[in-house]
Amino acid sequence: MIEKQHGIVWFTICRPTRRNAIDYAVMDELEQALQLVECDDEAKVLVITGEGEEAFCAGGDLQVFHQLTTKEEAHAMLWKMGNILYRLLTLPKPTVALINGKAIGGGCELATACDFRFARAGARLGFVQANLAITTGWGGAAMLFEKMAYDKALDLLLHAQTITAEEAERIGFVHRIFADSLRERCEKQLRCYTNKPTAVLRAYKEAAVGRWKTEEFRQRFFAEIERCAYLWESEEHDRAVQSFLAKRNK
């Protein structure tokens, strides 16, 4: 769902029964939100969040994407979302992930692509892809190594467990924690941005994202997609997903 209010474009993933997991429809809607923010001078900040209080985003919807069995099929999906997150990463306006609940796997990649991450107190976050015998596949690792200290970023990826928003703030992944009234607190936090001229916001963002528009970074970003696609068709990944789905459906 896309809303615009007081200079903020709110993009809400509205799949609470699937823990706001990403499918192809969500990808298409996110592209629409990015297009709006890019083209509308009255849209000064993009905020991405999830519906409800349980989940920000549970990553890719395994019930949908587990049907992709070959590296070619997986690559097409990974490339589509990877391109969207690269576009989000280099968007010429400020972006915020408002983490209202669990952010798991690709949900953390989505949050990493944003400039700022605000989280509900006690929310849990985790790059858990390694537990499914794959890597981040939407550019998440490339972005994380750019935005965090090397050792902390690598530990998050290899540990592959969830941590609290408070711990994520301590290591520099989360920037603000709100106990309640997330949307209101977020809007209040962003007023100092939305009262600035759009041209100023664009100028600072263009200065910031120039380092991610280089050919060297693009190669690293999209090489990650190739590696994940290769691992996707492995027997280890298939067994791990089957085991995960069986436990969740008990």
From TrEMBL:
- Listed InterPro entries: ClpP/crotonase-like_dom_sf (IPR029045), Enoyl-CoA_hyd/isom_CS (IPR018376), Enoyl-CoA_hydra/iso (IPR001753)
User: In the record, what terms sit under GO molecular function?
Assistant: methyl/ethyl malonyl-CoA decarboxylase activity
Gene Ontology cellular component terms for the protein in this record: cytosol
The transmembrane residues are: none
Q: Which reaction does it catalyse?
A: (2S)-ethylmalonyl-CoA + H(+) = butanoyl-CoA + CO2; (2R)-ethylmalonyl-CoA + H(+) = butanoyl-CoA + CO2; (S)-methylmalonyl-CoA + H(+) = propanoyl-CoA + CO2
For this entry, list what GO says about its biological process.
fatty acid beta-oxidation
**Primary location class:** cytoplasm
The UniProt entry, under Pfam families, shows: ECH_1 (PF00378)
Please state the span of the N-terminal signal peptide per the UniProt entry. none
Protein keywords: Cytoplasm, Lyase
Is Cell inner membrane there in the keyword field?
no
Query: EC?
Result: 4.1.1.94
Q: Where in the cell is it found?
A: Cytoplasm, Cytosol
What the protein does? Decarboxylates ethylmalonyl-CoA, a potentially toxic metabolite, to form butyryl-CoA, suggesting it might be involved in metabolite proofreading. Acts preferentially on (S)-ethylmalonyl-CoA but also has some activity on the (R)-isomer. Also has methylmalonyl-CoA decarboxylase activity at lower level.
Family of this protein: Belongs to the enoyl-CoA hydratase/isomerase family.
Q: What is this protein called?
A: Ethylmalonyl-CoA decarboxylase
